[in-house]
């Protein structure tokens, strides 16, 4: 998108998100003070324009602008047209950019969506000669109603260098920018990470047609962070952080996240990431935040639940319980930024500590007490048809949590599906923890011979697809070639 000659105005992407039955969010970015002009119609001819909205794009928001469009018809393809007007020269108006999305249904029509996580990780940025971020193009061809991005939407702590050597002797060549040349600490650098990803043509095209519901994990801020952490680990020293506290980084990262993701601000807590999305009578979604309220990472194997063992935290747990209890939807998707029963560890000054929920085999301890309480509540409240989806570990898997195979048994069986990365290094697999009895039904991860941190060019990039047709949910794990690797059909429990 551009103004007249010599007055460029670039929109790095248009997208819609946080859709409910009668609303959608439209997002775009300019490169100077501008007014975003949005027109909404139900056909691509724009003969029936229903809404006209004006939103300013100013330096305070890095020239991003969002427009919440309400009163839309349910279950309808919506077309939108965006132009930017230069605020310093109002007669100059840019070329229009057109996008589309589908509103949530009011009836029980079929729903299809995709999920994954991890974009531009481990230094694997945009190599245009190798096709760029191809998984976004493949997901777009699936024509989903929306994407759930399970976190690590950026790698703020992962600089993008011009080149990386591949094991076969070839060279991976990245697009590079100044803001991605070091770990992000300033607000401008965090914003620059989102702008870097939007340089990819596949992501921009995806944004223009598919709503994205985004949550965050650690790399939106820095690797394995927790609130109040002092940035003194050997990793922080290697990366030459100047800031000394993760909470300051998190505050800047949170602002950039909400500027560049089409999220609705919470009235109670404007920077809140966790939220509920109602998508018609068949589906409710809970987007969790497993970072902002946790206690310190490390060996949290205490037998009692307290601040050091928080993972979601009491307020978020209470919110989730209320939402699940009140939900009338047939299916209840819980989108988590980390798997529940995989041991996820990190090295902090040569001491291994727990980053995830799993604390090791045996009865629930520490963070596991929070999950045990939640799973027990779901069982005794009679909440049916909960399915967990996640990413984070950089491979794809299907886990069936079976109380008959678990140490803690006071819960109903449930599924957890893992898929990712979208465009990052491939790792794994991780060790299972028997506390909640996860059983592997399928897994695709690097072999021992392949090693770890495989580049996207190796083809081990993954996403999942879920199709809901009434009381039947079909879950399919796919790769970057759009191959169906594994699939299962789940029957809803009713009554």
Overall average pLDDT: 92
Strand content: 25-35%
Total DSSP helices: 7
Largest sheet: 7 strands, mixed
Helix content: 10-25%
Distance between the termini: 52 Å
Q: Round the Cα radius of gyration to an integer and report it.
A: 22 Å
Strand arrangement within the widest β-sheet reads 13-14-15-18-20-19-21
Walkthrough of the structure:
The protein has 495 residues and is an alpha+beta fold. The chain contains seven helices and 24 strands. The chain has helices spanning 134-141, 187-197, 201-207, 234-238, 246-260, 314-326, 367-380; strands spanning 15-20, 23-29, 34-41, 51-57, 64-70, 77-86, 97-102, 111-116, 147-149, 163-165, 171-173, 212-214, 275-278, 283-287, 331-335, 345-348, 351-354, 386-390, 396-401, 414-418, 438-444, 462-469, 472-479, 484-491. The strands form six sheets. Strands 13-14-15-18-20-19-21 form a seven-stranded mixed sheet, with helices on one face. Strands 12-9-8-22-23-24 form a six-stranded mixed sheet, with no helix packed on it. Strands 4-3-6-7 form a four-stranded antiparallel sheet, with no helix packed on it. It is globular, with a radius of gyration of 22 Å. Residues 1-12 have low confidence and may be disordered.
Features:
single chain, six-stranded mixed sheet, 28% strand, disordered N terminus
């Amino acid at each position: 998108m551009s103004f007249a000659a010599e007055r460029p105005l670039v929109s790095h992407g248009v997208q819609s998100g946080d859709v409910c039955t009668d609303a959608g969010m439209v997002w775009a970015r300019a490169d100077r003070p501008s007014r975003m002009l949005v027109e909404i119609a139900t056909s691509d001819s724009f003969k029936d324009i229903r809404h006209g909205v004006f939103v300013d794009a100013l330096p305070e928001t890095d020239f991003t602008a969002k427009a919440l469009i309400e009163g839309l018809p349910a279950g309808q393809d919506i077309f939108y047209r965006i132009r930017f007007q230069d605020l310093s020269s109002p007669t100059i108006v840019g070329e229009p950019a057109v996008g589309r999305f589908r509103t949530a249904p009011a009836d029980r029509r079929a729903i299809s969506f995709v999920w994954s996580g991890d974009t531009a990780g481990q230094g694997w940025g945009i190599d245009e000669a190798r096709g760029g971020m191809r998984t976004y193009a493949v997901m777009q061809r699936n024509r989903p109603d929306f994407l759930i991005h399970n976190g690590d939407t950026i790698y703020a702590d992962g600089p993008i260098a011009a080149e990386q050597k591949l094991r076969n002797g070839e060279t991976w060549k990245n697009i590079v920018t100044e803001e991605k040349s070091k770990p992000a600490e300033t607000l401008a650098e965090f914003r620059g990470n989102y702008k870097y990803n939007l340089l990819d043509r596949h992501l921009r095209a995806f944004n223009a047609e598919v709503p994205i519901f985004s949550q965050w994990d650690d790399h939106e801020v820095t690797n394995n962070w927790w609130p109040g952490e002092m940035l003194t680990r050997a990793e922080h020293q290697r990366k030459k952080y100047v800031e000394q506290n993760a909470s300051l980084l998190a505050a800047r990262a949170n602002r950039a996240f909400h500027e560049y993701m089409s999220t609705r601000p919470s009235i109670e807590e404007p920077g809140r990431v966790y939220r509920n999305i109602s998508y018609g009578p068949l589906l409710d979604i809970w987007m969790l935040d497993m970072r902002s309220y946790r206690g310190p990472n490390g060996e949290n194997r205490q037998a009692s639940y307290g601040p050091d063992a928080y993972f979601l935290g009491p307020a978020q747990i209470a919110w989730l319980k209320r939402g699940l209890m009140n939900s009338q939807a047939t299916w209840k998707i819980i989108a988590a930024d980390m798997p529940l029963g995989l041991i996820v560890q990190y090295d902090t000054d040569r001491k291994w500590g727990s980053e995830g929920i799993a604390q090791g085999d045996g009865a629930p301890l520490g963070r596991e007490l929070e999950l045990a309480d939640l799973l027990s509540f779901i069982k005794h409240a009679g909440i049916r048809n909960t399915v967990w989806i996640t990413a984070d570990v950089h491979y794809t898997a299907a886990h069936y949590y079976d109380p008959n195979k678990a140490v803690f048994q006071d819960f109903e069986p449930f599924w957890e599906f893992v898929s990712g990365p979208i465009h990052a290094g491939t790792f794994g697999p991780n060790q299972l923890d028997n506390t909640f009895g996860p059983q592997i039904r399928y897994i695709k991860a690097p072999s021992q011979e392949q090693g770890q941190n495989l580049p996207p060019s190796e083809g081990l990039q993954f996403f999942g697809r879920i199709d809901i047709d009434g009381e039947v949910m079909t879950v399919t794990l796919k790769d970057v070639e759009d191959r169906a690797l594994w699939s299962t059909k789940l029957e809803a429990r009713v009554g």
